[in-house]
Predict the structure of AAA+ ATPase domain-containing protein.
Amino acid sequence: MKPTDMITQVGSVIASVMFAWAMFKQYCPYNLQEFMDKYSKKAFTFFYPYIQISFNEFTGDRFMRSEAYSAIENYLGSRSSTQAKRLKADVVKSSQSIILSMDDYEEVDDEFQGVKLKWAAGKHISKTQSVSFYPVTDEKKYYRLTFHRRHRQLILGDYLNHVLKEGNEIKVRNRQRKLYTNSGSYWRHVLFQHPASFESLAMEAERKQEIMDDLVVFSTAEEFYARIGRAWKRGYLLFGPPGTGKSTMIAAMANLLNYDIYDLELTSVKDNTQLRKLLIDTTSRSIIVIEDIDCSLDLTGQRKKKEEGEGDEKDPKLKLPKEEAETKQSQVTLSGILNFVDGLWSACKGERLIVFTTNFVEKLDPALIRKGRMDKHIELSYCSFEAFQILAKNYLKLESHHLFARIQELLGETKMTPAEVAEHLMPKTISGDAMVCLESLIGGLEKAKEDAILKAEEEVKESARLKAEEEAKEKEKDKDKEKEKAKAEEEAAKEKDSSKAEVNENGFCENENAELISKEKK
Ligand SMILES: Nc1ncnc2c1ncn2[C@@H]1O[C@H](COP(=O)(O)OP(=O)(O)OP(=O)(O)O)[C@@H](O)[C@H]1O
Ligand SMILES: [Mg+2]
């Protein structure tokens, strides 16, 4: 006889005894009942060598679905589909896959390190007291695990940990990921269905692989982070001109790691307290994104304040665009952001990535992007030929073409963002002729090159004009100086002449005086 069948048989014997006991209890005096209760339990445990554990679907007062119950449900999913006769099906990932679990009162066997166990799904049904036209029943589902008592240590320790771990992993694999956005101090979410992947991301293969490795190593390094005593988090700074794939890369990261995205709009966060609340509400296995961080915060504020010598330098106000700041009265500060990056991560369990994006990395405060906060700095730049090849493969299914050589040449001579290249490669005709797209791209690149040359010429002209203006101003200044000098000399000469005349006049008077004196003497 199989051990599992034995469990079933013993179970049914016990059930009969319990029934007989219930009948007996109705007609038996209370004292005798108590006595019998005590000893029947002892007898039961003596003869029944199995241990049973129930995992109820809902626990506690708050009617929260038990995490253990849903982990067990996921864990038993694959076993149920091969063993149970009646199954329940649920659709996940927006109708892309079906999850099976065993129906009520079904049983499945499991084995762990050579030990056999039995799982059964059951439910308690009770009538509720509420007054209603329709009869309302209250179902309380549970899973019951049965195993021999000699394996107690193993099952209560390693086996249950193994079930919870594997169940949670399956849950993460099956879950529909979400994109959260903040509205006031709450997160709202929609299903995250961005199709971006690292494979379709136009970027040099080597750099792409390096970033992917970094992400995967991070996501599997729980023990490492615990051992070295660091919070399990990593910061990424993505910078580069508009349309170079920063947002696309974030979506690709989420898809690679199966993480949720929390897109934090800082300008709608009132103050640091609200920011803290939002961040504490984020879940594990998520990417917290602050896009265009240079626009959300005035990161030069700190330095300006220091120069002006006003305010507390540790707590500079992050200046939002003026009107916005006035209307929203946001008081999120740089120190608030820094605290969030450091504080939250050290406090919250579970892995989290934080990603900042910016078009102007040089504008950011060094404190914000120093290593340890933003561990990895990734520059996304203009389209290289290698990146173009990926786009051509994605958009046109082309590995090579005779026009590629010309495109390579032009990409070496001029700058175009992957977004612009992608726009040229979008199908232009119903038949989706690749040639038309490539020619459009060549036209675009040639125009960009001409524009760049014209711009450079204009810049040269402009700088020459500015230089000429400068020189003219200098000359004018020199002339003015000369004029002033000449004027000064003239005035000096005049002064000299006038003082001579004075001397002469004085001389004349003296002569007159001398004449008068001599006349008087005579
Ligand atoms: N490296 C890339 N690989 C594939 N597609 C790209 C890449 N860069 C841009 N694109 C395409 O261009 C569009 C715009 O790119 P994206 O929004 O990622 O740019 P961004 O760098 O975030 O720009 P911004 O700084 O303005 O936010 C995307 O929808 C995508 O189709
Ligand atoms: Mg973007």
Notes: Confidence is low (pLDDT under 50) at residues 300-328. The CA atoms of residues 197 and 252 lie 4 Å apart.
